[in-house]
Amino acid sequence: MLQRMSLTEVKDILKTWREDNSRKSDEIIEHWEDTIREEIDDLGEEKWMILEQVCVAGFDTYRPDVVEDTLYLLIQQFTPSSLRVKRLIAMRYEMREEWGEALEVLDQILEEDEANSSARKRKIAIYKAQGDTSKAASELTKYLRVFQSDQEAWQELCDIYIQEQEYNKACFCCEELLLHNPHNHLYHQRLGEIRYTMGGTDNLENAKQYFSQAVKMAPSNMRALYGLLLTCTQLATNPKCHKKKDYAKIVFWASKQISARYNNAGLTDKQSKLPVIEGLMSQLDVSGK
Amino acid sequence: MDDLEISTRAYCKIIMHCAKYPSCNVNGVLLTHKSDLKNGRPTKFCDAVPLCHLNTGLSLVPEIALAQVSGIVGAAGTVISGFYHAHDNLKDNHVDVFSQKIADKIAENQDGAVLVTIDSKRLALKIQNDGLIVRHNVAEGAWKLSEKKLKLEHESITLACASALVREGIFRELVDFDNHLDDITQDYVN
Predict the structure, then answer these.
(1) ipTM, interface predicted TM-score of the complex
(2) What is the distance, to the nearest Å, from the Cα of residue A237 to the centroid of all Cα atoms in its chain?
(3) Cα separations (Å) of A176 from A21, A150, A191?
(4) pLDDT digits (tens, 9 = 90+) for A226-247
């Protein structure tokens, strides 16, 4: 159970989650029940945004009671003709899995406002929930032709393609994200992972470059360090490889970095970590440098 | 036909992992004590190690995780004897290609390994039945529904325990391998 907090503290947390777009629905509902519900009128300017946030959390955790309480207040204030309220009404249908009705309401929003991106995205979410991933992917592609800088949408499309194992397309999406955020080590690392999963010498070379970049930007990124280690090991143990010594150097460096991180974290007694690295190093020795 | 048994510890960890990340695909491995192997096949699953909830379609993290877990289990007298997974979509029970490939790898090293799919529709705040679908490997890449029944170590008490852990919010303290990679001081063996 979360500790009882003051209203101000709760308001601050909810604001942070709104700005980060965090999905902490069950915690939001707990705050609603513990603190906010009794003190709605003291919420000030943020009242309506908080009610909307709690309403969406109610959809996510299937709490029709919370939804009814919050949606009632929002409808009273903004009337059902407000597009933002309409979107919530559509989401209520989604919660009940009444897909037809939900799509109808969303189509109404789009008739009034063709450029309403949140309604279009809800439609795509419905297709995904129904299990129709190919339709979700094609609608999302159409959406992105218009809204090319919507990073949330590129990420979603990337995830869908990874699940469908269309790795080339997933790479394309991730590259778009990189164009928008060239200094984000996480995207470099993600691209590295996709290339690594695809396999084959060219992709592994590519993966190595992305992992190296990620490590350069964020030396503590464990996934990138391990990625570098595994990628270079695979490249070095390839019988057709010409640059074994170079790869071996990188493997050695990466393994030292990883060991150092574990040591710094005070995990020297965890003998488990070293066999992984030793195993990989011995693979290199066997193949001959 | 012998039944298979899953310990309360393993079952609760699986349920906690699902509860912590309800909107993601999750997966993890099952462990068996060497002493619970009969004719080289597992009869009882004593523990579970939660692995991933992010980007479950990419192979890097599961590879690292399996290598590390193999290192730990050797010393602890256990073996990796199964793989569990759950989908983000409530209605989805199918075995996706990725989970199947990982399970194949485990089955290569351990006879009688199982692939457990969590049936999300059967989970609830007050869990009535175990909600697990068990499959055995019959051939390369083919997993069939198991004829053996998987029972819980303490039956209804195990279910009550899992329900309580979810209700009290304790599942938030579970650490999986993805959490460990983000912060290596966190222990994914829990």
Answers:
(1) 0.84
(2) 33
(3) 21, 10, 11
(4) 999 999 888 888 877 777 888 8
